[in-house]
Structures are given as structure tokens and as C-alpha cells.
Amino acid sequence: CNAAWRMKHKLMQVMVERGEQQRLSGLVQMDDACLGGERSGGKTPFVAAVQTSGEGRPQRVKFSVVKGFRSPEMTQWAKRHLGDGVHVVSDGLKCFEAVAQPGCTHEAVITGGGRASVEKPEFYWVNTILGNLKTALRSSCHSFKPKYAQRCLAEFEYRFNRRSSLPDLIPRLAYAALRTPPLPERLLKHGLC
């Protein structure tokens, strides 16, 4: 059991590292979300972003655990995960205005919360993918510690971003894992990413 846990977390860490190399471009739908609850050690805030094509279809996703939804945190997130010239569409959360600082544009669509917010066409894909993510996590990670949240998010992100080439998914992951430096168990258990 311990060996299986180590193997799974090493592979998930490879997925985290591969995801860090990819930046979103074009039009991006962005939203704030949380994982967990009181029984799992508290809520873990994360940013959900979906890059869409010109036809409005989802191309790539990016899920990133953040310390909180504050402007400096969003500026740093944008610098790490958005390419030049990205146009971000988000709800009216004030901190999301900070993504425009690193050379991106931002459009706030005030949703008002509740059912109306999830029915806005501007957020169709980010809401759909967030629903799929939460369903997947409920079925595969019945509970997890907040320190492993980024790995759990990266696993879904990795699979989603490679859904168009499923036969290559496992060989590419194995290749990436072989090229990744060893990760001692003490670092795995601390959830360091």
C-alpha cells in the first residue's frame, strides 16, 4: 500500500511539473473555486482557467492552488500561467482585475452569484469543467489532505489537456517520469510542489 501511494504521488508530481511548463493563450475563462471542507482540514482555494478556441471550444485547462483570492496573488498567477496578449473573462471578483497587469486584458462579467452565475455563456466551459473535476475527485479521491490538493488538480488537468491523444498519454507520462529527478518520500509526504 505504501509503495502504491508513493508511485501515485510521484506520477502526480510529474503531472504538476509538466503542467507548470504550459501557459494558456488566446481567450481564457477564469473562476475561483475551493476544494474540501471542514472535515478534510479546511477549504483549499484554487484558480480554474480554461483556454477556449475561436469557436468557443475548450482547449486547455489550468488549475492552481492559491493562498487566497487577493490581487498580488493573481498577478503572480498570471505571470506564471498566461502568455502575452491573453484575454481573460472572469466574474466580478475584484482580485481578478490583477491578471491584466502582465500584458493581458481582462473583462469582468458581473454574475450576481447563485444559479444565474453558472448559466452565463461566458463561463459555460469553466463551470462545466469545474463540475467534471469535482465529480472526478469525489469518485477517485474520497478525501485528501490540503497539502496534496495541487497534485490532485494536476492529475485531472494532465488528462484533460491530453484527451485528444489518449493512446500517447501513458507513454508520454512514463517518458516524463523517467526524465524527472528522484523525489524522496519525505518530500512526497510534505506535499511540496
Summarize this structure briefly:
The chain is of the alpha/beta class and 193 residues long. 44% of the residues lie in helices and 18% in strands.
Topology:
Blueprint: H1 2-20, E1 27-35, E2 44-52, E3 58-65, H2 71-81, E4 87-90, E5 105-108, H3 114-118, H4 124-140, H5 149-161, H6 166-178, H7 185-190
Parallel strand pairs: 1-4, 4-5
Antiparallel strand pairs: 1-2, 2-3
Walk me through the structure.
There is one protein chain. By secondary structure, the chain is an alpha/beta fold. Helix content is 44%, strand content 18%. The chain contains seven helices and five strands. It has helices at residues 2-20, 71-81, 114-118, 124-140, 149-161, 166-178, 185-190; strands at residues 27-35, 44-52, 58-65, 87-90, 105-108. Strands 3-2-1-4-5 form a five-stranded mixed sheet. It is globular, with a radius of gyration of 17 Å.
Tag the structure with descriptive keywords:
alpha/beta, five-stranded mixed sheet, 7 helices
Report the biggest beta sheet as strand number plus sense, adding barrel if it closes: 5 strands, mixed
* Helix-strand topology string: HEEEHEEHHHHH
CA gyration radius, whole angstroms? 17 Å
Beta-strand proportion: 15-25%
How many strand segments? 5
**What structural class do helix, strand and pairing data support?**
alpha/beta
| Helix count, DSSP H or I runs of 4 or more residues | 7
Shape: globular
